[in-house]
Each structure stands twice: as C-alpha cells, then as structure tokens.
Amino acid sequence: MDIQFTEEQDMLRSSVQRLLRDQYDFDTRRKIVASEQGFSRKHWEAFAELGLLAAPFSEEVGGLGGGPLSTMIIMHEFGRHLVIEPFVETVVLAGGLIEQIGTPEQKQAFIPGIIDGTKTWALAWTEKESRFDLGNVTTTARREGNDYILSGAKTMVIAAPWADDLIVSARTSGDDRDRGGVSLFVVDRRAAGVDLQSFKTIDGRRAAEISLREARGQLLGLEGEGVAALEACRDRAIGALCAEGVGAMGELNSATLEYSKTRKQFGTTIGSFQVLQHRMVDMFIAHQEALSLLQHLNLSLAAGDVGLPRLASGAKSKIGYAGKFVAEQAVQLHGGMGMTDELNVGHYFKRISSINIQFGDPAFHVLRYAQLDAAA
Amino acid sequence: MELNLSSEDAAFRDEVRAFIAENYPAEMRVPNPETDLTKEQSLLWHRILYNKGWIAPLWPKKYGGPGWSITQRFIFEQETSRAGTLPPLAFSVTMVGPVIYTFGNEAQKRRFLPRILSGDDWWCQGYSEPGSGSDLATVRTKAVRDGDHYIVNGHKTWTTLAQHADWIFCLVRTDPNAKPQSGISFLLIDMKSPGVTVRPIITIDGSHEVNDVFLENVRVPVENLVGEENKGWTYAKFLLGNERTSMAGIGRSTRYIGKLKQIVKAEIPAHDPAHLEFLRDIARIELDVLALEATELRVVAQMARGIDPGPAASLFKIRGTEIFQSITELTHRAIGNYGLAIREHPISTNHFMPGPEYAHTASEKYLNARKLSIYGGSNEIQRNIIAKAVLGL
Prior knowledge:
The complex is a heterodimer of chains A (376) and B (393). With 376 residues, chain A is of the alpha+beta class. Chain A has helices at residues 7-23, 26-34, 41-49, 67-81, 87-101, 104-115, 226-262, 274-303, 308-333, 344-357, 362-375, and strands at 121-124, 140-144, 147-158, 165-171, 182-188, 194-200, 206-220, 264-265, 268-269. Chain A folds into 3 domains: 7-119, Butyryl-Coa Dehydrogenase, subunit A, domain 1 (Orthogonal Bundle), CATH 1.10.540; 122-223, Butyryl-CoA Dehydrogenase, subunit A, domain 2 (Beta Barrel); 228-375, Butyryl-CoA Dehydrogenase, subunit A, domain 3. Chain A has 11 helices and 9 strands. In chain A, helix 1 (7-23) runs parallel beside helix 4 and helix 9 packs antiparallel against helix 10. With 393 residues, chain B is an alpha+beta fold. Chain B has helices at residues 7-23, 33-36, 39-42, 44-52, 70-82, 90-103, 106-118, 232-245, 250-267, 273-304, 312-334, 362-368, 379-389, and strands spanning 123-126, 142-146, 149-156, 167-173, 184-190, 196-201, 210-221, 225-226. In chain B, the strands form 2 sheets. A 4-stranded mixed β-sheet of chain B has the order 1-4-5-8. In chain B, helix 1 runs parallel beside helix 5 (70-82), helix 9 (250-267) packs antiparallel against helix 10 and helix 11 runs antiparallel to helix 12 (362-368). The longest helix of chain B has 32 residues, at 273-304. The two termini of chain B are 34 Å apart. At the A-B interface, strand 3, strand 6, strand 8, helix 9 and helix 10 of A face helix 10 and helix 12 of B.
C-alpha cells in the first residue's frame, strides 16, 4: 500500500526538506524556543513563501489544492525537525474549519491572511471539565445584533499567545454536554474581554488559559454545527499530528541505531548486545507499522471515506502507542545522554508525549475505535 | 502489608510514626522535594534525625548508628518512606559513610564520619564518566602520585547534586597498566580544591540535579586514599550493593498510587468509560506493588535469619523502577490536557502554571522518572546480573 507520490508531491517534500535542512537545525530551533516570542516570524514567512501555508487549501480559496496528503508530507518533515511554529493550529485547525464551514465572506476575509503568513491562529475548544470530549462546553455565547457575546473559560490552548485570531467553541443552546448546542466563533485575540495567562508546554511551545468576559465574536458557519465541525477537524488534525509523530519516530530510530554502533561499553559497541538488537528491531517494526497506518489514514482523508472517524481514532491510538514505545526506548538506549536537555532525543520524546495528549490520548482513541465499531 | 511484628517491634513502629508526625518540617512539604528545596531546607530533616540519633540506621553503633536489628531498620525505612519524608542524602549516609568505616583508617573515620552524620559535609559520587556508564571498570580519570599528593585529571559525569557538595568520592585510575578492575583506587576529594569545576547538566524535565565535574591537575593529599591503592574496585562494588537495596521504593509507590486515585476521582467522571480503565490499570499496578512488597518482606525475613539474599537487590531495582515509571505515566495520563504544561525551573511563583495543584508536577515526574531504568546500573545490566548470578547462564 506504499503511496506512489506524484511529481508535485515529491517536489513539495524535497523543497520542505531543503528549507529545513538549510534553516532549521536543532541549534536554530533551540534559540527559537528560548526566544522572547517563542516562535520565529522569519521562518513562518519562509514557509509562506515556499507555499506551505497554501498547500492543503483548495484552489477556490486561493490554495494549492494539495489536501491532506500535502499536509502529511509537510508535517512529516516538520516532525523530523521538531518545527515549533503553529502550522497545525493555523493551517490545519483554523484554516480547515474556515474552509469547511465558513461563509464565502469569511473564507475571503480570513484564508488569504493565513496563506500569506500575516496571521496566525489558535483553536480554543478544551475546558476544565471537557477532557477529550468536544461537546462538553460550558462557555456561552448569546446573540447581540450581528455579533455574539462570549463568556467562560478555555484551558490549555496551544499557540494562543502567538495567535492573532482564535476560533472558540461556545454554547448557544442546551445543557453542558448537549452536542447540538455548540457553535464556533472567530474572536480577535486582542479584543476587549479576552484575557490570556500564558505558560510553556512540555515540548517548548506556548499555550494559555483564556478567560472570556463579554468578549465579542463572529459566528463561524451556522449555529449548532460546532461539534460536527470539530469532529471532522479532529480527524484532519490526527492526520497531521500522526505524520509529525511518525517523522519524529524515524529520527529517534536513526539516532538510536547510530548511537548503538558507536557507543562502546564492556569492550564492544552496545549495538552488539542481543537484548538491544531485539529492542531496536521492535522499534523499527513500530515505526514501519505507524508509517503504513499514517499513509492509509491520509489516503482515506483525501478520499473522504465513510469510515474515517473510526480509522482516525484507530491511527491516533496505534501510532500513539508506537511513538511512546519508540520514544521511551530511544531515551533508555541513549542512557544518561537521553535524559539531557542538550541532546535532541529528549525533545523528540517530549514532542511525541504532547502529540499523544492533543485531541485525546491513545487510550481514549482505542476506546472510541471500539465504540464506533459497536455503533455501526 | 505488615510484617508479623513482635510487641517490641510494634512499639518501635509506633514510636517512629509518632516522631515523624511531630517532627517532620512543614517547609519541606513542597510539590517536588527533590527539586524545590534549597540545600539548607533539604538538610532540616537530616539534622532532626541526627539529633535523635536515627540518621544512619545502617551504621554500627560504635560509629554513630542506632544499633537497630534488621527488622527495625526495615520498619524505619517503611515508615519514613510511607510518610513521604525526604531521605537523608544517600551519597553521604548510605554510600561513602559505610565505605569509610569499613575500609578507611582511624584518622579518616575520625575526620569524616561525624561530619557525615551531622550533615556538615555534603558528599557527591564521582563514578560515571562520559565513556564509563554501565561499564564502570573502564574509568579513565587518572591519579598520579607526586610526593605526598596525587595529581588528579579527568571528567566525571551525572554527578547528582554536586552543586551542593563539599566532598566527592571518586574512582580514579592509579595503575594504567593493570587490568581494568585492578588499577582503580578510591579517593576522597575536597570540592574546594583548585582545579575542580562543576558544570550543570539540565535534564529533560528542566531540572538541575546532575552535573559534569571536571578535575584538572587537582592536588589530593595521599591521606585521602581509602584503603589500599588499586583496590578501589572492591570498595566500589561494596558501595553499589548499598545503593540498590532501597530501590523497591514500596512506600513511595504506595503514596503515589494514593495520590493517583484522588486525581482520577477528581478528573474523570464515573460515567466516562475511561474511569473503569483507570481503575483497572491502577489495580494492576497495586498488585505489582503488593507482589514486590511481599518479596521484600520475604527477603527481610531471610536476612533476619542470617540467609544471604544474593542479588535480590537487582530484582528490587528492576521492578521498583518499572512500577514507579508506570505510576508516573498513569498520573500524567490522568490529568488529561494539563499534561501538556510543565513547571519552569528554577521554581518560582512568578511563573503561571495552569490546572489544579495536584497536576502541577505530573509532567516533570513522568519525564524525570525515565532516568530510573538508566541510573544505578541500568535495568538491562540488572537483568544480566540475575541471568548470571541466579540462573547461572
């Protein structure tokens, strides 16, 4: 089932690879993460120039029409280089939602700013009680003229401190867990009544707790279709995050293999010990399976297959467990070095740990996979 | 689980329990004692135990030990760890102290042991080197005799809390021509000596526990050699045996499971199918702890009857660390989205940390616990030891 990439897709991949190889080595990334802002405008602009921010969008909205496969290609390379910039948040989450449910005016108003790199976005769906349930929303929105007034609190919103605009889920009707009563809103991050408390994440990103006090927002799409839209958005996000995770796994496996061939203990390379050989074989198999499932998922995303939600959850779970195994063993086999902030191995480990939390952990998704089967 | 205690031992247990409840310093009850305390704060409990005469359970009475039986020592260990007290610095009390009173000369005993007991000297361990981790016998740090001094040159690494240390005990190579194990000596080095440089190593949880220690032409008086020259390997092995005995960590694991249960209760509503999954996962870990605790009690009972438990320490190390890693992993998972956040080091109230307080250290604990299967002889090495020494393979 190995994907035969088109010439265009091959070109996309090699141009991302070239850009990251030339401009995004681990030292550069370290400096970006440690900087005041925490991400690099300069690199973001370079991504825009190369067309990466336009790649998945359809041609009707000014994109390159690459769809989920272009996202997969880009995110796989981003995973290999631990790119910190908010591509998932801006292009995949916000861009995807706007393209999916936005009015023609909204698409025209927001997508060009994403594509040309002038605006970054974040998606605020998680709340204190929501855990991984997209429909568990207590933030409220009431209509006032053409706008809505939002009140409530969103938690753990990744990339919010960097964002110009937010997409916020809020309740327009029903009780706390009523799926049909949730709508999505575009909120200017600097608007009155929007307060952020920022902090760093485990993988070097910035996130925020967001409090909304009578903040003005614009309805995205129609009232009540928020959860359905978020579900489809999550499937696309899983395609992207899994690609990133698989990219990171590949790097961890190469680094571990290389280390095992050079690190000597007891008069020989540690790679000559059978117990470690078998471990690395298992890491290799985990990566191969994850890569296959990743391609399968993204082909289904591109085709809009009926069984997509179930496959997405299955992939998030299986690739998540695989990533966790590879990451933990990569640290273990690097010994003390694997524990250091200095070596990149620990940073891949932490990125994979974060991916595993975003949009639901592997245990959550394996259960969802089972439940969607039972429901069918 | 409890030992079948005699009435004397039961009374002792009650005494220890009451002493901890009355005397453990409130200011040491911080979110993460291993990283959040200053040197002085972390010594508070040490000094209290010292004044009570309980600082060194392992030591013979004539050097300042309390003269406890094996069972009493076990009870003390169990009670202090169940209560979540910060153990006295192992490098001083459990490691170098016993080496000095077992292999050191009278002058060394007089000079070093009282200050270890009182907490006036803080010791760190100069074992690992960049090229010598699991394979310690290959240490390359050189000590060359020059009159009544050794000139020491080398690079030690993963040196825990060297930033606080007054002294470092080092494995150094004194005979470059001998076989790896036979040319090593055990040397005590004053950290204030010219030529000693400590460089922090920041780990993946953001904390500063370990360090590189560089030794450049450090002049060490010959009187700081422990035992005989080139016999250091024997002393090193003796010490490593002590390092692994407390690694089952039953008390700590039990405490963390208790916290985990509260977190699951608070975070995951009973109607969520994940709730049952967590209960099952926690129960499996509890059974792991129960089985390991029963094994520990069996070994203690054997030791009390004078039977050598052999490499039981390796078993405790493997299972104790694996269990604790599972607990930290499950805790990190239980807090859901809050697992994305991590406290910034050094710890300060200026940094905002989201989520409920019980979630604040979950990420750093999960990350930090990855070290447990690596240090103190990696778990792969421990399995080799059991394969060889127990199974005869």
